[in-house]
Predict the 3D structure of the following.
Amino acid sequence: MSPRKIGVTELALRDAHQSLMATRMATEDMVDACADIDAAGYWSVECWGGATFDSAIRFLNEDPWERLRTFRELMPNSRLQMLLRGQNLLGYRHYEDMVVDKFVEKSAENGMDVFRVFDALNDPRNMARAMAAVKKVGKHAQGTICYTVSPVHTVDGYIKLAGQLLDMGAESIALKDMAALLQPQPAYDIVRGIKETYGDVQINVHCHSTTGVTLVSLMKAIEAGADVVDTAISSMSLGPGHNPTESLVAMLEGTEYTTGLDMERLLRVRDHFRKVRPKYKEFESKTLVDTDIFSSQIPGGMLSNMESQLKAQGAGDRIDEVMAEVPLVKADAGQPPLVTPSSQIVGTQAVFNVLMGRYKVMTGEFADLMLGYYGECLGERNAEVVELARAQTKKEPITERPADLLPPEWDELTKQADALPGSNGTEEDVLTNAMFPGVAPAFFATRAEGPKSVAKSEAQLAAEKQAAGSAPQGIAGPIKYNVTFAGRQHSVSVEPV
Amino acid sequence: MSPRKIGVTELALRDAHQSLMATRMATEDMVDACADIDAAGYWSVECWGGATFDSAIRFLNEDPWERLRTFRELMPNSRLQMLLRGQNLLGYRHYEDMVVDKFVEKSAENGMDVFRVFDALNDPRNMARAMAAVKKVGKHAQGTICYTVSPVHTVDGYIKLAGQLLDMGAESIALKDMAALLQPQPAYDIVRGIKETYGDVQINVHCHSTTGVTLVSLMKAIEAGADVVDTAISSMSLGPGHNPTESLVAMLEGTEYTTGLDMERLLRVRDHFRKVRPKYKEFESKTLVDTDIFSSQIPGGMLSNMESQLKAQGAGDRIDEVMAEVPLVKADAGQPPLVTPSSQIVGTQAVFNVLMGRYKVMTGEFADLMLGYYGECLGERNAEVVELARAQTKKEPITERPADLLPPEWDELTKQADALPGSNGTEEDVLTNAMFPGVAPAFFATRAEGPKSVAKSEAQLAAEKQAAGSAPQGIAGPIKYNVTFAGRQHSVSVEPV
């Protein structure tokens, strides 16, 4: 029997640099790897969406739509894949449906193939319109389960959610583990359960590597029937990033599974990013492996956020109280998965509770979460806290899909964008400004100046290295000496680094 | 059914710092973790042997026997474990049997419980005496399979070797993967094969993490019946080291296996070494993950050795030729596993072959390897090369156990040691000098001065950090500014690092 082929999604161009280097990688540091990525045999290449759009215009003076067209041109044989936050698109609020349709349409037009659609609360209503839009333009709509652990989250619940996504027309299901919480046994059980319940639906598994355990989870997911798994080329892997692509290949050798990836190509991709990564060192997290989240349930990024909030209030010593408060706030809110934006909303409220008394002051965002303006969570919200939110904000709780409250806005968004100096009058620019109204105007104004990389140049790196290790006099070395020290003779070889 | 208990061997005190920081960790940086390690519920604590003995006297002015007694005292409830290179003990030549007996006897007397006995060539005759000596003193004799990949190494071959070790009285079998080459499928097959062939013999699995894939191998080994696996606490893990202990615990949660480890204790051990590790940063390798060995079969350390040999000869550009030569030399030598010392012997000969013509000049060590003076390999040696070795060295090939050629040497070794200034007249000192005659005399002379750590102090680290991040004027920050740059306003927060 020939081995079963396991598809691989390469993350180097999107989530890997988002997770490892604060989404700072410039297109110019990616283009030279594209030919090899395109020929390596991946199922798809994740290269757009998530935080890359925001980062491109905010930090890099790059037009994200241009980046997408570049990828399309350089990787003609690949499925390009993006991460799309459902009704939020790539921004931070809900958009009216026509904006969602337009965004999907334009993304497809510019080259996108696979849309991984998710919602931070796992509320299917927040994913429905985006998925319908993807299907309408004939592209691949992938429905997403955000994996979390809580008293109300069960394997059966995830299987049920998969069914809702399939009912909405999902062509495949992504099991997305952004906090590296997915342990091998639930990975197996969820994938197995979906396959047994709904037949041979395609399942993609996305895990971060922070806890050091998730390559095993990918193995068990594959054994349970997963079709595609996400990895990042080794030189862009590990820590808060993802498992290394080459390790996945090696993991499956000799088993009844194979990736069919071209190792020669992978090594060239690896060598490319091995040179690029040091240029972004200042943006890198120092985390190598961290299993704390299994006990605290608090993702690393959320923890450091709360710590700096406390410090800013001169209360850095109260982090333990805040960490104890988080599970209570999370439970009151109906057990939302702790990812952007719910992690910030819950974390900030926990800080407020500790500093000012429980729910004495609510953030506007937390009140909105309690009142249903982000959608529904799996758990019941605490009715007393809902009442407090209503009293503090004078807003009524809602039960409908949040976007249903929004009036048509496309025409107004178009007017706003067209009025901006430097806007090029395209629908792409309308969408850019719609999603990032605080950043896009300045970006439009400076776009003509072209991309401004925040990476260090190779010359800078070389100069720094020399400064750090500079010897007053160069030697041609290696030169060997016998050195007697503390009575012991040592053979010493000296050479320039 | 209650889950099956998987034993864990903690490596932080031996192989972890040997692999991550060139074996430089001083006892003073370990003692404060011992109480927690002792109470965490490990199957054993590897804490001695390997390169630690050499390193202690060569770099740290520490008496290794004293270190062992310290561990014994601080971890009264733990099985202490060591790595023992069979007839080589901890040195670099074969010793006559009585020296082997004495070493094992003294190690047991000073507190050792579990002796993991291995031979670089997997020649059982080189392990037999040490294992018999361990059994004689009533301690745990663990026979070891060094895992490698070659045309002559098969799953069946490893199973057969396990049988030979059991025949020699091994109380357990270690499957030792020093190059992180053990992929999940062979891990499963070998462990399963041993269990099916010999019944319920205890199997310990030791993997490095260099290739990023071996936590999966541990999972498959456990599924196949492995009883104990080796890991290192997360703050002393990964890279050329080992898989993180806490990740192993998380990996097994919810499965039919459990480690039974006390997570509170583990976190205290982690926090301890999290503080210690930066003190040894200058000794750390930069390797995070490296899967090259799967294609090249050349361990990272061996590769960098060959590269520096080539550079010293002004032939740094010929590394590709040398890498192509290695498999040929390895095959000629009968496919020895490439570990210390065989990796150096094969690698240096490959360099010589490229620089001077194939086997025009043989190193003494390579000739000895070809003539049987290190023992037998699994493969056939190339008869023509054996003949060349004989011609160049005027030595005859042997087929007997190398140590059988050695005359009694204990009395002479005793005399030598007793004559050294600073020797304390103990059999321990005789053994120290016997194993490291080039280092022990100077160590004895300076021993009274006490340990000399090569770690940076916390004050030094703090000073370096301050120097690196020094601002000309200190600010108390964080201070927030609105900064307008290239037409865009940014909210900027400034604070001292």
